[in-house]
Design a protein that fits this description.
- The protein is α/β, with parallel strands linked by helices.
- Helices cover 32% and strands 23% of the residues.
- Helix 2 packs across helix 4.
């Protein structure tokens, strides 16, 4: 399916998913406990990775089509949320009582991560000549396309499912592919 046909369907799908979450009556005060009990974990070596980036004041932008509040809580509970880290994701909007009312704009989905969401005055990645891009979707490989002053982009793809089916596409789009703990240099 051509990309121009996929995008409206992606917006429709994410909008419907967000509406379903609103209908669940999610309370902000329960998020930390839900994350803690979820079993969500970061990949091995995350502490050293984030620690080195923090010590060298390397800006880190985490760009996700997922729930920003949940991602932020995972990072917080793993003690890696820091001043050099910025998150662009779908953040929830809660009312004064802490009840989920909707989601903040813009809607971020797999195919719009490179559409200028990086042009924030609070994020300095656009001033850097080198980018390490990590993603788990083929839509992620274009995230750095609109950054200015970029000379080098190293694209690392996490191939987590449908490995045999997607290996060729990942290998042609990424510089390095990680699949189920294996490293493929392409």
């Amino acid at each position: 399916m051509p990309l121009e046909d996929k995008v409206p369907l992606m917006v429709e799908w994410w909008s419907a998913a967000h509406e379903l979450l609103v209908e669940q009556g999610i309370q902000r005060k329960l998020l930390a406990g839900a994350v803690s009990q979820s079993g969500a974990k970061l990949r091995g070596g995350y502490g050293e990775f984030f620690g080195r980036l923090k010590r060298r004041d390397v800006p880190v932008l985490i760009f996700s089509a997922g729930l920003g509040d949940v991602l932020q809580e995972i990072l917080k509970q793993n003690n890696v949320l820091s001043s050099n880290l910025s998150i662009r994701a779908n953040f929830m909007h809660f009312n004064e009582e802490g009840l989920l009312q909707g989601f903040k704009e813009p809607l971020i989905h797999t195919f719009n991560k490179g559409e200028g969401h990086l042009a924030s005055p609070t994020h300095t990645a656009h001033d850097r000549p080198n980018v390490l891009l990590l993603g788990d979707s083929l839509g992620d490989v274009s995230m750095a396309d609109n950054l200015t002053n970029v000379m080098n982009v190293l694209r690392i793809g996490f191939l987590n499912d449908k490995v045999e089916e997607r290996r060729a596409a990942y290998s042609s789009s990424c510089d390095i592919v990680l699949e189920s703990g294996l490293l493929l240099l392409v």
